[in-house]
Amino acid sequence: MLKSFYVSLLNNQSTNQPVNQSTSQRYIDLTNQQKKKLFPGKLSKEGEKMFVDLGVQAAISIISHSVFIIITWRALQSIRFDVLFKKHKVFEVRLFMVILTIVIASVLSHFFLDLLNWSQQLLYLF
Question: What is the tally of structural domains in the chain?
Fold first, then answer.
């Protein structure tokens, strides 16, 4: 599908056509100069830095969400939710605890990540 999109860009055709043998064949028949326009090769230093920054931000987000889920789960273990539910509803109590843990941890993690991003953006103020 991606190849047909690039081929249609070069040929000024509609991008809604399905990938078929003729589209693939047209991609293979492109000249090297046309392929270099589609795939310019190495990224610039700024482009590489941007991808590294995105990767670091993704790793920090995953770690933050995981840590806050663990902390919230431990904190919710001390609360007796079984008194809020009917007797013999163990599955429902556990499901409620899991959902509540994810909601609370997500809110806390987003707050922490927003605070981290805002503190990094303060550098642009001065």
Answer: 2
- Output the pTM of the full model: 0.60
12 CB-near residues (< 8 Å, 6+ apart): none
DSSP letter for each residue of 30-87: --HHHHHHHS--SPPHHHHHHHHHHHHHHHHHHHHHHHHHHHHHHHHTTS--TTTS-T
- What digits encode the pLDDT tens for the residues 17-72? 555 555 555 556 666 666 566 656 666 777 777 878 888 999 999 999 999 999 99
Alpha carbon distance 109, 107 (integer Å): 6
Residues 19 and 73 in one domain: no
Distance of CA 66 to the CA centre of its chain: 15
Question: Are residues 33 and 49 located together in one domain of the fold?
Answer: no
